[in-house]
Amino acid sequence: MKILVLNAGSSSVKYSLFEMSNQSILLTGLIERIGESLGVHRYRLAGLEPQTTEEVIPDHQHALRALFRLISTSAVIGDGELACIGHRVVHGGEFFREQALIDQQVIDRIDSLIPLAPLHNPANLLGIKESLRQMGDVPQVAVFDTAFHGSLPDYAYRYALPNALYHDQGVRRYGFHGTSHHYVAKQAADFLGKGLNEVNLITLHLGNGASVTAIENGLSIDTSMGMTPLEGLMMGTRSGDIDPALHFYLHRTLNLSLEEIENLLNKNSGCKGVCGENDMRTIHQMADAGDVNARLALAMYAYRIKKYIGAYFAVLGRVDALVFTGGIGENDHWLRQQCCAGLSALGIAIDAEKNRAPARPCGAIHTDPSPTKVLVIKTHEELEIALQAQACLEKSV
Known about the structure:
This is Acetate kinase. By secondary structure, this protein is α/β, with parallel strands linked by helices. Strand 9 and strand 10 form a beta hairpin. The chain is globular, with a radius of gyration of 21 Å.
């Protein structure tokens, strides 16, 4: 069975084609700069060197045509071999607590959720609609970033605001990065030799965007991102948790508009706001060179994570494993050490040598024996989308 995974952004389409019998990647690529003067298509077929082409790609229609043309000319899929197309959709609201076979009703509901994800759902919908136009005979499945967090209890997802804002406007915690948290939770359970429904985990997805999730018996029961991906941990360019009254202060004292404040908190805060840089590798280089603000950014970043680890220990009571994933979580041994330093009272103890070079794709970095395991697991959101699409397809038969 072959499944194509599409992740359509406002000016890009990321894709991966899987052979599900062995979960191998047959083709992966990125089409970007859609709508600009010259688009770029980077791709790699299994066993071959990466390729790059440049051409005018005025819209998503032309982007997907380029993709399906490549699939056809490379003969990577034979007639009738494409079983399904899985689409990443950022926001499923309260409608979607699992993946959904796409029909007009699903499209309409995703469209209705645009106010909750105005930067993401419109682009995701563009990819879905264009894919249906060009490959309408192939079943298509929507997989939602928010779905894994549909198990949050009401006392965790509700904000202390008037009830009408929840009931009429959908104001609540939804959480994001759900496909990543779900994938690494399953990998952690396998590593521990337990079923997913038997484990309590704290999973840390750390990249330019970052979130932490408390998982009890395989279910998400709390997560750091909220109604939007702005809440929670300090991130590359996002502020994470702040005093909500800051908005009023910035408006009164600097006369900033709502749009300017939104841009400030999403694109010019976090690490970038503190030290002028959001790439963690560059921040480490700056800190090593003596940059005071870079050192502060690193300290703040690790401190915020440590606070959430402690909070979610209190929520769960028992934690089988702490899991680091995402580009930063998987590769930054200094950060992992800082996040876990001083947590011996929680049963967390890091082995410095293991931490510097953890096994791939899943490695333990705790001392032996350690009451709470600490794992570094390579996330694979595209594969998780393919697996969920496959499950949806099998369930619909």
